Amino acid sequence: EDIVFNKGPFIERNDLANDDGVTMNVNVIGAGEAGILTRSAGTFQAGHIGALFELTHPRVNRQTNGTKTGTQTGIIGEVIEVLGDYTFSVTTSNYVGTVRLQRSTNDFASSTNVKIFTSGTQTFSATETTEDVQYRINVTVHTSGDISASLLVNTSTVEGSATSVGVIKTPLDIKGSFNFNTHGNWGATIVLERNEDDAGWEPFRTYVSVLTNGVGDRNVQFEGVEEEDNVRYRMNVTVYNGGTVEADLSATSSTQSGIVRINGVLTNTTAEIIVVSAVSQTTDTKRWAEGAWSSLRGYPSAVTFFEERVVYGFTDSDQQAIWLSKTGKFENFEAGINDDNSFA
Predict the structure, then answer these.
(1) What is the pTM of this model?
(2) CA quadruple 11, 16, 20, 24: dihedral, nearest 10
(3) What CATH number belongs to 157-251?
């Protein structure tokens, strides 16, 4: 049976090894989605089929924006998926027209209007609690003036409060370091829950506060590191006795990395891919790395075990290289700074 490697190894990141300005982007971001990987220069070859590529972006809030001039109508920016807190803004004031924030659950076969602006600088904020929902900004009437608008989705932090049992706001995608905090006086049980690869929600940490004469006996400040891909966390109040549970959950790593696998080569600069672990953005990035093993680069010709690691070595393209897996996880070649991480 073939072993499928979804976590590397990778050769040195292109911007560090070559600094040639070549960028890559994808048109899909969710794990399991099929789409297109595009490079600004260079060549995809048949030997890249089956190869992994890792794309790294700075952690920023998801957004779309743009401008319609004169009497232009239509979509501003692009359709984006929204989950959690978002802000819709029109930033120009001297226009005559109608700007709609529209919501759809079926890729805009049909849609509803969430907010309509018809004049002036405007801002609207709300929270989307349903998953797999798309939003777009649509200028349907435009008589004069420029219309500039934006939609910003907070993908780094979830914060809210509860006075009953239930999930506080929405889940948050987390890879790397994160913080979980509670505030105020409350008598309740709050559970930080974890869901990997949509396998279901499981308790990760459980905290109980007892309320006496309006004063709670604890608050929480927790820092953690999530090493796996495609993981979400949420804050769930499972028992409520009184007070207000105030809580926040934040992803604090400065970058986000996703992995795709090439299934076919379309042109020199485009390839069909499947997303292995979620990519944070569809924008261009110089920070990408090619998988170290493929038909193009060759596969290891030797293997052994050493102190709970599997060790592979010596490909056609690099006959000096060896790769050691993460301790106790023989298919994990994700590099890191911890003692048990993979290294080459």
Answers:
(1) 0.80
(2) 60
(3) 2.60.120.1110
Helix, strand, coil shares of the chain as percentages rounded to 5?
A: 0, 55, 40
Euclidean distance between CA atoms 100 and 138, whole angstroms: 5
Q: Cis ω on the peptide bond leading into residue 9 (within 30° of 0)? A: yes
**Partners of 69 in beta bridges:** none
HEC per residue, 200-216? CCEEEEEEEECEECCEE
* Other CB atoms within 10 A of residue 137 CB: 28
Dihedrals phi, psi of 48, to nearest 5 degrees: -80, -15
Gyration radius of the chain over CA positions: 24
CB atoms closer than 10 angstroms to residue 65: 15
Residue ranges of the domains in the chain?
14-59+255-324, 62-153, 157-251
Instruction: For the chain of 344 residues, list the mean pLDDT of each consecutive stretch of 10.
Output: 84 93 93 95 95 93 93 95 95 95 96 96 95 96 96 94 96 94 97 96 98 95 92 97 97 92 97 94 93 92 89 88 87 79 76
